[in-house]
Design brief:
The protein is of the alpha+beta class. The protein has a single domain, classed as Ribosomal protein L17 (50s Ribosomal Protein L17, Chain: A, Alpha-Beta Complex), CATH 3.90.1030. 56% of the residues lie in helices and 14% in strands. The chain contains five helices and three strands, in the order αβαααββα. A three-stranded antiparallel sheet has the order 1-3-2. Strand 2 and strand 3 (112-118) form a beta hairpin. Helix 1 packs across helix 2 (38-57) and helix 3 (60-69) crosses helix 4. The chain is globular and about 70 Å long. The relative contact order is 0.14.
């Protein structure tokens, strides 16, 4: 039985999986969205959300945890990008930093593709602008 077995093996060795998620996470951090297969996207989602949670702590320990998960020369730049640009957007949010959207199947092998991206947060300024435009439209319609 498969009780309490976390994660997908994706038909790869442990070192290959580690390298795969490290590289995909770096791509997602720099590009803000990537297209991959659905099982990889679902696994990458939990991997990246853990990294964002580490980055939200904004301390040396969090930075070192991120650098330990990302392999190679990109580890410092990924940690900087996460801590300075991405994590500050999610200070009020507890989890759910990414979303996975299913796309059409790949043509050659019929694999289910998915788009994984960071969730955009609405700021208070955006909502106030929308309210002003609604009020302006009400005034314009009342005058005419």
């Amino acid at each position: 039985m498969r009780h309490q077995k976390r994660g997908r093996k994706l038909n790869r060795t442990a070192s290959h999986r580690k390298a795969l998620f490290s590289n995909m996470a770096a791509s997602l951090v720099f590009n803000k969205r990537i297209i991959t297969t659905h099982p990889k996207a679902k696994e990458l989602q939990s991997f990246v959300e853990r990294l964002v949670t580490y980055a939200k702590k904004n301390d040396v320990h969090g930075r070192r945890l991120i650098q330990s998960k990302i392999i190679g020369k990109l580890s410092k730049s990924v940690a900087n990008e996460l801590m300075h640009n991405i994590a500050p957007q999610y200070t009020e949010r507890n989890g759910g930093y990414t979303r996975v959207i299913k796309l059409d199947n790949r043509k050659n092998d019929d694999a289910v593709k998915a788009l994984i991206e960071f969730v955009k947060l609405k700021t208070n300024d955006d909502t106030s602008d929308q309210k002003e435009t609604k009020e302006e439209t009400k005034i314009i319609t009342e005058k005419s």
